[in-house]
Design a protein that fits this description.
Blueprint (H helix, E strand, L loop, with lengths): L2 H12 L1 H16 L3 H5 L8 H15 L4 H5 L1 E4 L2 E4 L9 H13 L5 E5 L5 H9 L4 E6 L2 H13 L6 E4 L13 E6 L4 E2 L8 H4 L8 E2 L6 H13 E10 L5 H10 L3 E7 L5 E7 L2
Parallel strand pairs: 3-4, 3-6, 4-5, 6-9, 7-8
Antiparallel strand pairs: 1-2, 9-11, 10-11
Helix pairs in contact: 1-2, 6-7
Length: 278
């Protein structure tokens, strides 16, 4: 199999454009071959060991495994993060949440990232704000193990990670936070049928889904935690389900927050919410 054959095999899953992008990424990142090299046919001159590696990668991709899991890493906010099937693959839209968090709190002293996963948000904020103290929370021990790997690889030793269930909140310490940021589970179970198979079949459902009967479960928890853990005037910045912006806003309004605002992503979809603790 060569790169062109692999592209054809992936096209029914990804579409022609994305299939080419996936294959180009693999060939460049894993085998050091540029698009020009591929046009010159240099992928046919790979060593026997490299060809075996390519075949294994191709098999995983054809089975629908996301390329980020195959490579073992992805780029987010200018940094390379390790990702495994124990954590969500960070999306470009979530980079916008980091921008919003920085705009909402230009110089925060203490930041709390709920449902931290790979640690991409917490670590990105810490790298952007070297004088800030940042804590990340997740219920999954396996996800926290990945976050710790990323902390070490990206020299973000000041970020602390803790295992907590945000639905049963236990305070970390008496110090109050200036900002809570979160990309919590928000996809309703009924939405699963509309999801791409390479997401549905490979990314962790624990980090994706909420019950249809209670889609705002985690936002109510975040609002409660904010009332306990934020200083007066502290901020919240969260990613939300584009189908439920008004309902999510109302959750924070009902909890007493002020300046509750929905922000749209680069595609014009209601994707983020910010609010202030009174």
């Amino acid at each position: 199999m060569n790169h062109q054959e692999l592209t054809k095999l992936l096209t029914p899953t990804y579409g022609a454009g994305e299939a080419r992008a996936v294959v180009r990424l693999v060939m460049e990142e894993r085998f050091g071959l540029s698009q020009t090299d591929l046009l010159l046919g240099k992928d046919t001159t790979l060593s026997a060991d490299k060809r075996k590696e390519f075949e294994k990668i191709a098999q995983r991709l054809v089975k629908g495994e996301p390329v980020q899991y195959v490579l073992g890493y992805t780029s987010f906010y200018g940094h390379r993060f390790r990702v495994t099937p124990d954590v969500l693959i960070p999306r470009p839209e979530t980079e916008e949440l980091v921008h919003i968090a920085l705009d909402e709190q230009p110089i925060p002293a203490n930041i709390l990232d709920l449902c931290t996963g790979s640690g991409c948000i917490a670590i990105s904020l810490a790298k952007a704000l070297p004088r800030a103290t940042v804590a990340g929370i997740d219920i999954s021990e396996k996800a926290l193990a990945v976050a710790l790997e990323n902390r070490a690889a990206l020299d973000a030793d000041g970020v602390r990670f803790f295992r907590r269930d945000i639905l049963i909140w236990e305070p970390l310490h008496e110090q109050l936070f200036d900002l809570i940021v979160s990309n919590p589970p928000y996809v309703c179970q009924s939405e699963a049928k509309t999801m791409a198979p390479h997401v549905l079949n490979h990314e962790p459902h624990l980090a994706l889904f909420v019950p249809d009967a209670d889609p705002l479960l985690f936002y109510r928890a975040i609002s409660r935690i904010g009332l306990q853990a934020l200083r007066q005037g502290g901020g919240v910045a969260v990613e939300i389900n584009e189908a439920l912006p008004d309902e999510t806003c109302q959750t924070f309004v009902d909890a007493g927050y002020t300046q509750v605002k929905v922000h749209h992503d680069q595609f014009g979809k209601p994707r983020f919410l910010t609010a202030k603790r009174p």
